[in-house]
Amino acid sequence: MAAVLRRGASFICLGSSQLLSGGCKHGRTCILPFFSSNNRNSSSSSKIKVDLDSSTGIAVVKFQNPPVNSMSLDFLTEFVISLEKLELDKSCRGVILTSAQPKIFSAGLDILEMYGKSPEHYAEFWKSVQDIWLKMYGYRKMTIAAINGFSPAGGCLVALSCDYRIMADNPRYRIGLNETQLGIVAPFWFKDTMVNTVGHRTAELSLQFGLMYSPSDALKIGLVDQLVPEENVLGTATETMTKWLAIPDHAREISKSMLRKPTVDRLLASRDADTKNFVNFVSRDSIQKSLGLYLTMLKERKE
Ligand SMILES: CCCCCCCCCCC/C=C/C(=O)SCCNC(=O)CCNC(=O)[C@H](O)C(C)(C)COP(=O)(O)OP(=O)(O)OC[C@H]1O[C@@H](n2cnc3c(N)ncnc32)[C@H](O)[C@@H]1OP(=O)(O)O
User: N or C: which terminal CB in the chain sees fewer CB atoms within 10 Å?
Assistant: First the structure.
């Protein structure tokens, strides 16, 4: 199992053969963070950079998994650990998600994790996808997606799972659940998240066609809440977060939970069946063929 080493104001996760202390989820051992006394606490693992300003209570979580921030098993594991740590940190009240990569928020799930691997690997990967969605959709703290680039499929799901979405007003960018274009199917909880955001009819069109929306179209259907010039995405997200944090935490948190808990509970009630469905589906020859063709198409586009 890959080691996760966080340096500076950070924590360290190591494989089970290098046990240093107990108590961390995901089968990894964590040494919890040692923070310096100033107001900014930074930690940077290989794929997720966290910068918490404890004077404002705002944490910025940056995806840094070049070239396209695809969500591999390692990425998802580091991501969920970072969110868990922030959720437990009393000095953090809100989290902004954004990308350290130019032009790309996230290319979605790492297709290589779903292609040519064993059923056991597919199951482990899918559980980590469920974990990140359950963590984000039910997150106790306020979350904003600062979408500074392309955001297909899993990237769009992560943005949809936040409380508010601000996107760079660059007409070249696209966001949406495009799974059907890969010959795969967004599972029911991706669909629920979309329906809860844009409504049933728009989700019908969106999911069946696998539509990818320009920022202005995404704003029209309510897939994002606000467009701003590219260079202002993070600044606007920070200002917006400050406004939201004027609301007492417990009142906002209970309201969010009332609205989202039924959706979260649907997956919690059927996690194992959902994992089995995924493994059966993705192991089919026809699905493997579709994913292989899609990967080839991505590579050939460059030539
Ligand atoms: C009965 C019901 C049962 C239901 C069961 C469930 C079914 C399965 C559900 C699965 C849900 C899936 C969710 C997903 O997120 S799938 C991923 C979807 N993502 C995409 O379609 C995005 C693809 N990528 C792009 O469009 C472009 O890369 C992008 C616009 C993001 C960036 O373009 P750019 O030109 O800047 O970069 P390149 O295309 O050259 O890419 C650079 C390299 O990165 C590789 N790449 C890109 N995206 C991915 C990815 N998602 N996973 C893995 N690898 C990716 C690309 O191939 C290039 O690689 P090379 O440098 O080696 O050529």
Answer: C
Residue at 104 is within a domain: yes
pTM score, whole prediction: 0.89
pLDDT at 296: 96
Q: Is the peptide bond before 262 cis (omega within 30 degrees of 0)?
A: no
Host domain of residue 75: 40-259+290-300
Q: Minimal CA–CA distance to 11: which of 39, 65, 48? A: 48
Residue nearest to atom 38 of ligand 1 (CA): 298
Establish whether this prediction's ipTM goes over 0.95. yes
Q: Which member of 14, 86, 97, 109 is catalytic?
A: 109
Assess whether the C-beta atom of 149 lies below 6 angstroms from ligand 1.
no
If the chain, 303 residues long, is cut into consecutive pieces of 10 residues, what is the mean pLDDT of each piece? 29 26 31 48 88 97 98 98 97 98 98 98 98 98 98 98 98 98 95 98 98 98 98 98 97 98 98 98 97 95 76
Confirm whether 15 is domain-assigned: no
Ligand 1 centre from 153 Cα, in Å? 9
CATH of residue 253's domain is 3.90.226.10
Catalytic (active site) residue 179: yes
Residue 281 lies in a domain: no
Q: Note whether residue 134 is domain-resident.
A: yes
Q: Catalytic residue at 109? A: yes
Q: How many domains are contained in the chain?
A: 1
Measured CA to CA, the distance from residue 301 to residue 303 in angstroms comes to: 6
Whether 205 is catalytic: no
Active-site hit among 73, 78, 108, 179: 179
